[in-house]
Amino acid sequence: MRTLNLIVARLAAVVLLTAPAVLSTARAESPGATALSEHLGDKKAYNVVQNRFFLKSQRFEVSPTLGYVPNNPMVKRYVGSVLGAYHFNETIAAEGAFLYSPDAGGDDLKDLTHTLVGIADQGRSKGGTDFQQPLDKMIMGATFAARWAPFYGKINLIGETVLNFDFYGVAGLGMLSLQSYYAKYDDKQPTEIKTVLHENGRKTKVTPNLGLGFNFFVNSTIAVKLDGRSYFYVDTQPQYDPETPETESRLYNNFVASVGVSFFMPKMKPRLYNF
Question: What is the span of the domain harbouring residue 260?
Fold first, then answer.
């Protein structure tokens, strides 16, 4: 009985020692592993995009977006834009953008503007100085920028659907076209609103811009884009009194928060890596 137990123990030891080598040989001789080895050659598998079903490398992106400028207290600015980008790899892209914001005249004015010119008119009737509320409307813009997307992630929705996304930063330079106005109170207006706008000329400003955004990938061609950007420019300080023009300058910022849809082309190539 002891001899039989000794023989069984020795056979088990031999199997345990030889099994890894046999499995390794079988795996190496599998068709998938052989094809991957031939494709890679001397290169190692690139695992940075592991488990990423959506690839942007060497693809173009076109993104129509709609946005709003929330940080302008005087006027409402709705912005439509088209962004075009080329992705050199999964991280770096070059981008160009065109922006347009229609001018609706007095219909763009916020309640704060009407309130300020109304209060100023009451003060002027009591011996105060003349008052004009300066404001600028962003009309058009064109920018060129570099985009950096260092993070890629996934969101598990309702326990079954996985939504892939990436997070990017953007920095660039461009031009903004601005329409300047003075808002004043005119009690001769037949309507309830007595605020009128007087044009003060069109101006073009160089604008550095910085922003952040998310792409949420729907499939291999389409993504939903959330984007926020600040467009900076330098101009003279607001001139409230027509008789004392301002000469000092200050920094202005038009922040545009937008949502859009991105279309990627050409069609994504099938992946050859195991994931």
Answer: 56-265
- Bond from prior residue into 270 cis (ω within 30 degrees of 0): no
| Same domain membership, residue 164 and residue 141 | yes
C-alpha torsion sign, points 178, 182, 188, 192? positive
What does the pLDDT read at residue 194?
82
Q: Please determine, for residue 16, whether its predicted confidence score (pLDDT) is greater than 50.
A: no
Same domain? For 123 and 233 the reply is: yes
pTM of this structure: 0.74
- How far is Cα 220 from Cα 223, in angstroms, rounded to an integer? 8
Confidence of residue 23 (pLDDT cuts 50, 70, 90): very low
Confidence tier at 162 by pLDDT (50, 70, 90): confident
**Residue whose entry in the numeric block shows the structure tokens 């939504």:** 163
Same domain, 111 and 86: yes
**Within this chain, do residues 20 and 140 fall inside the same structural domain, yes or no?**
no
**Domain count of the fold of the chain:** 2
Cβ atoms of residues 166 and 155 within 8 Å:
no
